[in-house]
Amino acid sequence: MTFPVITSRGLGRWLVALSLLVSVQAMGHPHGWIDISVRILTDDEGRVTGLHQTWRMDPFYSLVVFEELQRVEGTTLDAGLDQLGSEIRDNLSQQNYFTEVRVDGERQPLGEVSEYTAMQRDGRLTFIFILPLSAAPSLSGNTLEYQVYDPTYYLEVVHEAEDDQPRDDALVLRDMPACVLTVLPADPDPERVIAASRLDVDESGEPGLGRFFAETGQVVCP
């Protein structure tokens, strides 16, 4: 599993329990999911300064984390979530925060995340952070596209949806009403779908497998 987990002393035992519980659920990747919503941040000149991302972990993963945090003596759930948020940030920083951003096909350099929080919201572990774009590209006359995915496809990352359609708040851009926002569905090759379905919980697929199953957020501006 590539997604960051609690590694502090006293919490390590939850990893074993989680792996056992997940392994009996089903063979094949993915083994969990994250619901995301993204807000494109811009400055007064219409340049993209960052992506405000909200990740909601699936209910099962969230339940295991909350139960283990509450079992730790001498601390509170909020303190445990603060520590977990820091660990998530640190681990994601080694994997480009699971995020690729392109403007007119050119990949954009990402900055380091310094604003983030982990919390319990409606029974789900929720991680919120701002991912800066180092180059601050202009949106005027350009097309911005991003993908958020676990490279191993152990976890599936999807935009918030209702009735199999992205919600209005799944992708948001304020103060630039002429831009067209779309969440494009993934269209993986059937052979890759079959290959992923055959991977066990402790197996890895081809490098970057998750990219082929990733939705694409698209912002087209005149």
Automatic annotation (TrEMBL):
<protein>
    <submittedName>
        <fullName>ABC-type uncharacterized transport system, substrate-binding protein</fullName>
    </submittedName>
</protein>
<dbReference type="InterPro" id="IPR010412">
    <property type="entry name" value="DUF1007"/>
</dbReference>
<dbReference type="Pfam" id="PF06226">
    <property type="entry name" value="DUF1007"/>
</dbReference>
